């Protein structure tokens, strides 16, 4: 309300001052003469206010405040001070937080810079290591190729050495092993008075240079057709071997086969002179040589009567083999 009154007053004063301003220069003389009496009439005034020489000063006096307005104004001042204090405190915390963020950001920059530096060093070291690795791989490849050639040469040499050792061992075994051969020995005629049957004896001889171990044999004597049939089976007694012995090099022992029956005089005449039947002995000798190999010698001979009561043996085409 006070401001409205002051505004109206200033408007009136400005309007009055405008009405008292001198006429413009381009006014006509008639008009100047008409206004002169008015000027002469206003001359007696001692002072002029509202002009440039004597401006009017208006002093606006505040309206006295009521107790409620004063209390409200005081409360507003307190609230304003409180708000300003809180704002100052908030700005202070914002500054602290900003400073802390700046420190953290700076620290992160330093960490990132350090990591980038280490990463660059790592990449450089990896590149160097990759180069060295390539060189090493190349050297390893050349070494592997050389080793393959050496391995092939060693394998060939080892194979040749193995074959040579095997050949030497085989040759040595052939030269030193025991060889058992069955030679004809004698015939003991039968004796009816003593009830003694025909007995054919074979000499088993070790012609090798090492002993024959666990030497044993089985033999059988019988009168069978001559020549032997193709289906003759050379069966042996099923009785177990009674004994075994070691037969030294260049030694021998006797193997014998005894006929299981007495032979008549007519049958004796037939086997001694006739071409259809003969007295045979056959069998197998087994042994182990000095190299631990199981060996065998088969034998089969036909008895031939000679003059003067002498006998000899005749080897058959079959069952005279050995390993």
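^ structure tokens above, recovered residues below v
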């Amino acid at each position: 309300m006070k401001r409205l009154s002051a505004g109206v007053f200033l408007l009136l004063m400005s309007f009055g001052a405008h009405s008292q301003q001198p006429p413009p220069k381009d006014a006509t003389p008639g008009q100047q003469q008409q206004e002169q009496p008015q000027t002469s009439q206003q001359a007696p005034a001692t002072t002029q206010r509202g002009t440039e020489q004597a401006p009017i000063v208006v002093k606006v006096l505040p309206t006295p405040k009521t107790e409620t307005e004063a209390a409200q104004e005081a409360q507003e001042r307190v609230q304003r001070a409180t708000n300003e204090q809180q704002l100052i405190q908030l700005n202070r915390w914002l500054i602290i937080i900003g400073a802390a963020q700046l420190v953290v950001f700076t620290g992160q920059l330093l960490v990132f810079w350090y990591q980038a530096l280490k990463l660059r060093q790592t990449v450089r070291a990896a590149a160097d290591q990759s180069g060295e690795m390539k060189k090493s791989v190349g050297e390893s490849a050349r070494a592997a190729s050389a080793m393959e050639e050496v391995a092939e040469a060693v394998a060939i040499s080892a194979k040749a050495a193995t074959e040579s050792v095997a050949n030497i061992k085989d040759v040595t075994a052939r030269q030193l092993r025991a060889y058992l051969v069955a030679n004809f020995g004698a015939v003991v005629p039968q004796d009816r008075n003593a009830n003694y049957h025909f007995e054919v004896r074979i000499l088993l001889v070790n012609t090798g240079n090492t002993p024959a171990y666990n030497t044993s044999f089985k033999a059988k004597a019988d009168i069978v057709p001559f020549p032997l049939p193709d289906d003759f089976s050379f069966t042996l007694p099923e009785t177990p071997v009674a004994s075994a012995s070691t037969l030294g090099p260049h030694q021998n022992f006797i193997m014998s086969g005894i006929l299981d029956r007495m032979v008549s005089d007519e049958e004796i005449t037939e086997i001694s002179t006739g071409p259809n039947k003969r007295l045979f002995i056959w069998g197998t000798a087994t042994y182990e040589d000095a190299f631990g190999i199981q060996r065998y010698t088969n034998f089969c001979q036909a008895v031939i009567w000679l003059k003067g009561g002498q006998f000899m043996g005749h080897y058959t085409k079959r069952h005279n083999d050995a390993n």
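Strands lie at 180-188, 199-206, 212-225, 245-247, 252-258, 277-288, 294-305, 311-315.
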